[in-house]
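Many introductory courses stop at the sequence. We go one step further.
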Amino acid sequence: MVYGSEEIEMQNYLKAGEKRALSLSNRGPLKFNNDGTLHKEIIASYSENGFYIFEKVFSYDELLDWEKDYLNIIERFPVNRTSKIDMKGRPAIASDCKANILYWSKPLADPFGGTDLANGRHPVKMIEPKPKKDDPDEIIYLTQGFLQFSDTFLRAYGHPLLLKVAENINGEDFVPFTEGYFIKDPGLGASVAWHQDGIKHWESPNWDQYTHGFNFMAQLYNSTPGNGVWVVPGTHKLGKIDIKDRVKKAGTERLPDAVPIVCRPGDVAITNRQALHGSFANTSSDKRVTLNYGFHKKSSVLNVLGGGLHGSPKVYDEKHIKERSRLIQYAISARSQKYPNEIPYIYKPLEKYKNKYIWNDQARNDIRDYSLMDISI
């Protein structure tokens, strides 16, 4: 393959970034102490770097179920942004939802960078490689609210060890953020410009490195330097960053101190939402499909007016938090039905209601359009 100078620079950047990433001590199996607390080495590394990679969390058999489900889901996507039908003429997935479920982009584009979208938190546009002539006009690169459409996603959401991690990081009363697929098809996948998650609390006297919670990123396929998320280690502790200034000083949007999240299928990355992160257009030959979902500290959201990025802006009172958190209990129920020999996680805020939140057909109707209640700060 013959590369132009721009592509050669990019390939060199990807290789150098991978070398930096693999030099960090922030990957390994999920480990807990005897008292159920997250292993001190994991906590220390996560605190230092702002992300950690848990290796081989999901089994091969579970990945096969997930892949089968995912391939069925993409067949049910609408044929274009305005269509209500899929490629087989059936009603498209999410076609009757009130919430914004599917996010579209031109191939290899950066739909948010340099715009006022998402409260302007993506101030610098990434390089947008030129798509091929026969590429589709638009692609779906992100979904939200997908626990209502995917049992395999719901069961993954209820993974007891990952929920135990959430408890260790955010406290036993942790609450949901939002859930969806990130889809980075080879030669098509869109960029996500450099940003920090979080609208609220940046000037709060109680702000700390855990204020805006975290995301889990569970990988169905390989996450590589070419298709994966990049993070600038340690930036989760710096407060609100002037991203434009960082890029200006670097002379490029290829930030020299950033590293890619490199994962194998079944690995799960935990990433602090305050860390400076983003991803480049996927010009590689590798597909990435990521289950992306996050959790907040209850103290960060209770009686706070939401940022309006996910769901409508509203004050998150106890009633709202309880109703949105029922998805955790449904997920625990769904996972227990599939894996009866696995010890389920006990979600203490809703433990006394566990017999109310049993996963069945009635529950499917109950969670319709649940993402309208997403908790975004």
